[in-house]
Structures are given as C-alpha cells and as structure tokens.
Amino acid sequence: MDADLAQLVPIALLDDQLADLHERIGRAQRKLAKAEAEVARLTAAIAGHDEAITALKRTERAQQTELERVDGLRRSAQDALDNGYGSADAAQRQIDRCAELADAAETAILEAMEAREARQAARTQAEADRVQAQEALATAHATLDPTIEGWRTEVRVLSTERSPLVAALARDIGGTYAQMHARKGSALAVCQDGVCTACSRVVPLRRTTDIKQGRLVTCDGCGRWLYAPPEPATSEA
Ligand SMILES: [Zn+2]
C-alpha cells in the first residue's frame, strides 16, 4: 500500500501537464474557429447584399415597364384630345391620372436605385472586410497550426509516459484515481504546512506524518489523496 502514493504522484503531475496542454489546444482551436466564423459571416453578408441588389434591379425594371405602359396610355389620351375623339374631359382626366402614375413609378425607380447604391457600397465594404478576415485567418493558421501540432506531440509523449505508470497501479487504486480525476479534475492535492491546498482543510498532524512516509491519506475536506510538496531546494549556501 505504501508504494501507491509514490506511484500516483508522477501520474498526477503528468495529468496536470496534459490538462494544461488540452486547455491550450482548446483555446487555440477556439481562436481559429472564431476567425473562420468571421469569414463565414462576411460571406453570408455579401450573399445577402447580392440578393437584395438583384431584387432591387427587378423592381427598377418592373417600374420602368410601368412607366412605359403609363406613357402609352397618356399618348393615346393626348391623341384623342388632339383629334377630338370621345370626351375631352375623360381624355384630360386620363392624362392627369397618367402623370400621377408616372410620378409614382419614377419615385419608385429612384428609391430602388438609391437603395441599390447603398447595398453596393455595403457589399464593397463587406468584400474588403472579408479580404482582411481571410488574411487574419491565414495568419492565425500559420502561427497556430504548428503550435497546436507541437502541443499534440507533447500530449502523445506524455500519454506514452503515463500509460505504463497507470498500468502498474493496483486495479482499485487506478479505478478510484480515474473516478476522482474525472469528477474533481484532480485526484491528488498537495498538503502544504498541514493544510490541503485544494480545499484548505487542516490536515491532522498524525496524518501529515503518514503522508511524509508515503501512505495514502484522504483529505477530509475534498476527498483527494494528499501528498507532500517536493523538497524545496535549500538556499543555505
Ligand atoms: Zn482537501
């Protein structure tokens, strides 16, 4: 039983390093995902502008057709008026009505053109922003990809170191370690100056002696196994 703590401490230290590496890899990957999302957002914005521009052009064409139709009506009314066909009043009313319709169509065309120009300007801006976002993404990949790869290599190396250490543990100890590690994030805690550094619970003096002798001692506060900190390098020279 006494050998267990000596076996567990190096595993716990490796697990701390592995957790740190996974944390760093996760952070770097989130950074890349964010840069990718920005490019995707701008691509979607550009597609939205394109759709709106197409719809506005359709509106402009439809209003142009309306303008031609109204002009035809106006000319036939004018013709009737000039040549004295039918009622002069009715012809005049049609001419007035046509002038109103033509105004409305022209206004609609102008509004659509203005909206289209605004959309085109926004599209140009989004296109420029996307170029920047793509550059930022490429830079992030250039710096982070090799870094992540390096961390992954470290993870593989540490995992390879860890496997035989875990395999050498008594089964019940290994099982408890794994459970505690999964539940609390760490199965071991340093007992520093008679206090558990994970939960601050005071460790009875008798047990600190047990810990120094390498026995498995459970913290009453957090349930972790306690171990003594590595001997500090003496500064007396
Ligand atoms: Zn504790």
Quick structural gist:
This protein is mostly helical. Helices cover 77% and strands 4% of the residues.
Q: What does the model show?
A:
There is one protein chain. The protein has helices at 3-83, 88-167, 171-184, 205-212, and strands spanning 188-192, 195-196, 225-227. By secondary structure, the protein is mainly α. The chain has two domains: 3-167, Helix Hairpins (Orthogonal Bundle); 171-227, no CATH class. A three-stranded mixed β-sheet has the order 2-1-3. A hairpin with a 2-residue loop joins strand 1 and strand 2. The longest helix is centred in the first third of the chain and has 81 residues, at 3-83. The radius of gyration is 39 Å and the shape is rod-shaped. The mean pLDDT is 94. The structure holds zinc ion. Zinc ion is lined by residues 189, 196, 198-199, 201, 219, 221-222, 224.
Question: Which ligands does the model contain, each kind named once?
Answer: zinc ion
For this structure, the CATH topology of the largest domain is Helix Hairpins
Strand order of the largest sheet: 2-1-3
| pLDDT averaged over residues | 94
Q: Any idea what the radius of gyration is?
A: 39 Å
Shape: rod-shaped
Taking the alpha carbons of the first and last residues, their distance comes to 38 Å
CATH architecture of the largest domain: Orthogonal Bundle
